[in-house]
Amino acid sequence: MHEVNQEELRELEKLCTQEQPPSSTAACPLHVDCRGICQALAEGSFDKARTIYEKTVPYPELLTKICEAPCQGYCVCSQEGDGIFLRKLEEAAFLHGSSKGSRSFLRKKTKTAGIIGGGICGLTAALELGKKGYGITLYERLEHLGGNLKEHPEFTDQLLEQMVQRLKGYEITLAAGCGKVDPEEIKQKHDAVLIAWGGQEIKRADEYYRCEDPGMFAAGDALGSGERTWVQAMADGKYAAISMDRYLQGVSVEAGREHEQPFETTLCVDRPVGTGHKERERLEGEKLRRLESPDCLTVSEAMEEAGRCWNCQCTRCTDACAFMRHYKSYPRKYLRTVYNNLSIAMGTRHANGMINACSLCGQCSNVCPFGLDLGQVIQKAREIMVSKEKMPQSAFDFALEDMEFSNHECYLASKERCQYVYFPGCQLSASTPEIVKDSYQDLCQRMDGTVGLILGCCGIMAKWAGESKRYEKTLEKLRDSMEGMGNPVVITACPTCYDTFTREFPDRKVLGIWEILERIGLPKKVEKTEDRVLHDACGARLHPKIRESIRGLAKAAGIRVEEQKYSGEQTGCCGYGGLTQFSNPEVGAEITCQALEGEGSLLTYCINCRDRFAKAGADSLHILEVIYDSQPDGSRPWPSYSLRRKNRFRLQEEIRREIWKEEVESMDETKLYYPLELEEQLEKRLILESDICQVIAQAEREQNRIRDKDSGVFIAHKKVGHVTYWVYYREREDGYEIIKTYAHRMQIKGE
Q1: Do 595 and 613 contact (CB within 8 A), yes or no?
Q2: Which of 3, 251, 474, 656 has the most other CB atoms within 10 Å of its CB?
Q3: Which residues of 645-682 are buried (b: 16+ CB within 10 A; e: fewer)?
């Protein structure tokens, strides 16, 4: 993939409904921002609430008295009790709040419009067109304006006067008492005409209030479509004015008006939980009587009622994903950021940081009500960045070099043909080489058929990094090794490897060691351990068989497991997926903390999960530790990056020597001495002992070093790949004392 498909992007954007309005707002013909008003009132900001209301409603002083409030019946709070009494809140906002009273500069237009009918629809259309600078004449056959409004018990002469005062602020002529007029004659005087009273002889109205005759529009009772609510009549006037304005400007009347009328929103809202939200119960007693009475609510009553609002938003993905919360946005905006970065400003630091911090775990697609998978888009974005050489070298270099170490220096594959091949995965070998060795010997002894072995990486690191060519090269190496063994059944011990093999090698049978052990039984009696919270691996998200087998194994081992809030298909990443822990350690730590929510010791079946949790200080055990370790210890510390390298190298040596009975030369290790503080710095800076040894070896061999006369400390450097390492050290009888070390990507002149 070398470019972004704009149409595909927009289709994905539609899946994210966070920008969709709440159901109450969607049901309102004027689409009043009910959520915004409730939020403002709950905070005691009545001025803000009034501003929000007046922004949408042409005659707020009128609508707060006569609105039928269709919004209340659609309010999501009505799912568990009474919907918010929104009209009462709007009335309180208008009464207790103050209006800014500001007006923008009004550019007068040369064209004019005639409005026939002085009811609520006609009055609204006149005001809206007046605000746009048109000269308006409002024709009313009766002496008084208002039409059928006079029949409403809440309508008064004072309200009418307030409405008229609004009209006087614009170039609007009120022609009341003109009797019945002929629309065709009125059309001769104006550039556009709106028929807004009933009983008129008009041709059938078209969409968007248009009549068949150009320049003629009809709205309100003139549509003849049955009884209309007051709020709908006001909306008719407002939207008819939009049609007339567009017609007079000579632009499209239809464009961008799909959700102008009441519609069913796609916004998915869950009942809020947690601190600050009261239990939602049906209102009763004096409180209900006050809300249903004609009297306006007091300030405190309005704040209390507004506080019942659920603050309608779709937060399923942001609740579940620490990555999304870190960047303080939601998928629709992330998609646009990705697109802009790839198509406009390729390589911006902020966008690259966001793109490279996603764990690509797929949780978002499973918690999203419409299945939007942001990770798939970000995966493609990384591939594009790599193909255009815009991927920062620092993002994934360490992880990719670690993968190459697994697939070269530490790669091991059986040479004989076999019925099965065990592929434990590079990280299990790095963390618990003893478990790999014991489980391999167990399979060899108890499986009905010969069992071969491959020690290496499945290549997922290259895929996560967007390195498609390197990923394919890794798969090809594995394919060649398996073909050399006669294409045996693959047995994996890593859910991510299982997912990779089943996806990339569909012609081969793939089993998990958990399936094998569930079938043939545990190798020995396991002492019952304490109950544990089971964390499902994100690599098993698409594989329910894995999750079922793990629970069966746990039961066989005497462990009663508790489920996490996000489990099964909705499980979250531990912080390792997508190489987040390398590209953005801060986000990686936040993702780990999200996965650790809740109390209790943890049981995992992905070694990355186990180690990430251990690094965060949690009691965590891998299921194979429970089965194969004589004394499983959930407090076993996180193995450092240097130790993980050594473990893999030693494992392949021991298997060749002890199990395959080959003659192997032991690894010659240089002894390094350094304090705990420096060890922590090495881990944070991703500097390995092997890197230090390379620097010292070159310096000693070529005498390319600087000696500080006062301290006796040697200073040396060496460039390895894209990184230049600096080491300050002293010689000791059996090794070297490391004083300080650091790395950077600056080119050293003269190298």
Answers
A1: yes
A2: 474
A3: bbbbbbbbbbbeeeeeeeeeeeeeeeebebeeebeeeb
